[in-house]
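User:
Care to share a sequence and structure tokens?

Assistant:
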Amino acid sequence: MEHAEIHVIGGGLGGLAAAAFVARSGHSVVVHERRRRLGGRATTDERHGYRFNQGPHALYTGGDAIRILDELRISPRGSAPPTGNARMVAGGDLYLAPGGPGSLLRTRIIGARDKVELASLMARLPRLTPQTFADRTVNEWLDDLTDRVQVRALLQAIVRLATYTNDPDRLSAEVGIQQVQLALGSGVRYLDGGWERLVDELAGVVTASGGVIRRDDGTNALPDAAAVIVAVGGPVQTASVTGHPYPPGVSAEVAVLDLALTRAPAHRFVIGVDEPIYLSDHGSVDGMCPRGRASVSLAQYLTPGEAPERGRLEAFARHAGIVSGDIVDERYLHRMTTVSAIATAASGGLTGRPSVVVPDRAGVYVVGDWVGPRGHLADAVLASARAAASAAVTHLSTLRRVP
């Protein structure tokens, strides 16, 4: 495999998916992963029988990722989040979340006129064409959408939750609308056993199809190969490997607090409205907790440059009814990246992101959540992985036709 036709640098979701498509096409491929462990941000850690992902993870069941995994004959098992009787926090008080007509009528988080306005907007939202809002920011879109302060705050909280991003002055409204449509449509799935099982399945497809995966195999230079796919993370890391000067972009970050609990919390899904924090029972799916126990993940969505505050996450957990006696273990991630570089309105939304083809580097392709015109989060990673693999295979065919 020293002379494999295609080399993939990076053994995260994107690198493994790209390698899987290459291997299934019948070409030789080798994956170089600098760490001992595969998965990147999709790894899952086990602590005293509890399993925690690298921050809250959810797979959008109506997005590109699920369809691409199906092409590889991978069907991630899991279930929907426990959003029944979800709660929202506003002004320090806890309210029933308006998740449907019944809860909208019962909730006291907004008044009667706001309820009418919100119901009307939510009915119209699925019919919007996200691409028409590509060059507008989330805040610009919301400003035109409604002048009712509380309705706007609720919508902004929903966009923040669906995009894992707290930068409404720069994030393209195309992304916000698209993600909310996916969340309110077919919804999301928490994966049984954590996202590492998905990583293992992708690695299994690579090796079963004849590909080779090398761990502890870091490289800062492009291998001498017919084609190379670079899946090493964000624009800065990718630029260091490819030599192409990708702009660093604007990343989205969160602070995360995972709690291992003796029992399920009174409220298993809580969203902050005027505080950019959310809590969810990510231990509700199979294989995440010891029998009879529970776990939750909290995330503080950070604005660019904002300092994380662990105390805010600990205080927010009390809204779910969690007390110190319930907690048997905890893990705090002070700052982690959710999106390497968001699609901004200034760059034209999703179509303004870099192509999988590296300019002036024949046979070199890139993969990431900041690459290509399709998707956000894991959807973008897997869509760019498939596109990069296809481009690399096509490049090989071109080389063979050249005398």
